[in-house]
């Protein structure tokens, strides 16, 4: 982030271009405060905010005070984590809290969203215990108060505050002039430069060696995508979203499903070559090979329908078989007629539509209890497949490739 001063801004940011930014403020005095702000920042990043935290946002030898003020000026919301230790910190109170409060009073932005813990049990008590230090009337503000305690803020409470910040940053009825939101979905490699909305899971799943992730992490990401979709859905009837996937395939499918076509959203995904791919009405594709289903243990109904889609190709059949604890009810294999050549971007939408149609046909025939999905596909295909899937009648369990095997990641409800 640059250190140049920001021009005068009132109200919400330019929703067509400017990234949504959050600023996390806290005391370094205790491990619990550091861990709590880490959870808040993580949940904010999962909900579309490019988020400043001094520990990972300040470069070496930076002019700290001028840099912090510049980032406060650029922020959409400021989330101070206020505890007894934070009140004793001059940087938290004088530099960050008071600066944010003054900017909010004079410019309307950033919006101050304090998370107050161990300073009172209701808003009136919070104001009484903090007025001399902060001069801030909590009794006149809507404020969620997390349960007191010596431990770090619970993940569920951090997620609630992040969702509240998103709702405040995106008042109902406001949105891009053209009606299309842009979401950068990142979970692999380094943290990207922020887009309009950046769903950022790189701290959790990225880095030099991308991780397959655990069920709790994937659940948090899925909940965040659903929160984001829920808030954006209040912005009128023009529901269009462009998704740039730089992420695990599980994240790509989940994003497409969150904004799936049957809920009234129009999804466009952007391939690496810059081509925009939108869901297609095509129900077949000449290069797509949908093999006759392989049936396992006999069941009159229920069981697991395994679906493996390999368009890379990666020859994932052995890894998929190893992941089955018992013979599935059926196994649907979808591949390409040609190999060794990347799938043209222009064909990804039709392939996704055809694959979704084949999965739905098998669901109608077998009525399984669950679908286990295994993918070796371009990320754009995964987004579009998620957007095409809906009304399956059973949970969809996604799996993430580890380099040799698959692990379950996200369970999408029926």
What does this structure look like?
With 414 residues, the protein is an alpha/beta fold. Among the domains are: 22-42 and 50-153, Rossmann fold (3-Layer(aba) Sandwich), CATH 3.40.50; 288-412, no CATH class. Helix content is 36%, strand content 20%. The chain has 13 helices and 17 strands. It has helices spanning 31-46, 54-57, 64-74, 84-87, 90-107, 123-134, 155-169, 202-205, 215-232, 249-258, 317-322, 345-366, 379-388, and strands at residues 21-25, 50-52, 77-82, 111-112, 115-116, 180-186, 197-200, 240-246, 266-270, 276-277, 288-290, 294-295, 304-310, 330-336, 370-376, 396-401, 406-412. Strands 11, 12, 13, 14, 15, 16 and 17 form a 7-stranded mixed β-sheet that branches. Strands 1, 2, 3, 4 and 5 form a 5-stranded parallel β-sheet that branches. Helix 1 packs across helix 7 and helix 3 packs parallel to helix 5 (90-107). The protein is elongated, with a radius of gyration of 23 Å. The chain starts with 20 loop residues before the first strand and ends with a strand. 46% of the residues are buried. Residues 1-16 have low confidence and may be disordered.
List the helices and strands and how they pair.
Elements lengths: L20 E5 L5 H16 L3 E3 L1 H4 L6 H11 L2 E6 L1 H4 L2 H18 L3 E2 L2 E2 L6 H12 L20 H15 L10 E7 L10 E4 L1 H4 L9 H18 L7 E7 L2 H10 L7 E5 L5 E2 L10 E3 L3 E2 L8 E7 L6 H6 L7 E7 L8 H22 L3 E7 L2 H10 L7 E6 L4 E7 L2
Parallel strand pairs: 1-2, 1-3, 3-4, 3-5, 6-7, 6-8, 8-9, 13-14, 13-15, 15-16
Antiparallel strand pairs: 9-10, 11-14, 12-14, 16-17
């Amino acid at each position: 982030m640059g250190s140049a001063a920001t021009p005068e801004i009132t109200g919400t940011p330019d929703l067509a271009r400017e990234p949504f930014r959050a600023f996390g403020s806290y005391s370094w005095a205790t491990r619990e405060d550091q861990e709590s702000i880490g959870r808040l920042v993580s949940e904010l990043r999962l909900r579309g905010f490019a988020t400043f935290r001094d520990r990972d946002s300040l470069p070496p030898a930076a002019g700290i005070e001028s840099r912090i003020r510049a980032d406060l000026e650029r922020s959409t919301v400021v989330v101070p984590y206020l505890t007894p230790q934070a009140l004793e910190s001059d940087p938290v109170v004088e530099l960050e809290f008071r600066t944010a409060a003054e900017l909010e009073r004079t410019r309307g932005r950033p919006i101050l969203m304090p998370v107050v813990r161990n300073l009172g049990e209701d808003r009136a008590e919070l104001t009484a215990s903090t007025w001399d230090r902060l001069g801030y009337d909590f009794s006149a503000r809507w404020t969620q108060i997390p349960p007191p305690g010596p431990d770090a803020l619970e993940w569920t409470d951090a997620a609630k505050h992040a969702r509240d910040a998103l709702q405040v940053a995106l008042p109902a009825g406001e949105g891009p002039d053209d009606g299309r939101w842009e979401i950068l979905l990142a979970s692999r490699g380094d943290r990207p430069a922020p887009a309009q909305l950046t769903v950022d899971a790189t701290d959790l799943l990225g880095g030099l060696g991308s991780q397959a992730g655990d069920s709790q992490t994937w659940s948090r990401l899925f909940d965040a995508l659903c929160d984001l979709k829920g808030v954006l859905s209040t912005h009128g009837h023009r529901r269009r979203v462009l998704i740039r996937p730089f992420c695990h395939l599980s994240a790509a499918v989940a994003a497409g499903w969150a904004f799936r076509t049957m809920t009234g959203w129009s999804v466009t995904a952007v391939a690496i070559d810059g081509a925009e791919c939108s869901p297609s009405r095509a129900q077949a594709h000449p290069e797509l090979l949908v093999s006759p289903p392989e049936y396992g243990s006999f069941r009159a109904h229920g069981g697991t329908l395994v679906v493996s889609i390999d368009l890379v190709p990666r020859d994932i059949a052995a890894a998929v078989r190893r992941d089955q604890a018992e013979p599935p009810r059926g196994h649907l294999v979808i591949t390409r007629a040609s190999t060794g050549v990347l799938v043209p971007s222009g064909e990804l939408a039709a392939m996704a539509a055809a694959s979704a149609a084949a999965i739905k046909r098998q669901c109608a025939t077998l009525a399984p209890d669950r679908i286990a999905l295994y993918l070796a596909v371009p990320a754009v295909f995964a987004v579009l497949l998620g957007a095409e899937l809906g009304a399956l009648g059973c949970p969809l369990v996604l799996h993430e490739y580890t380099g040799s095997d698959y692990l379950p990641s996200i369970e999408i409800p029926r």
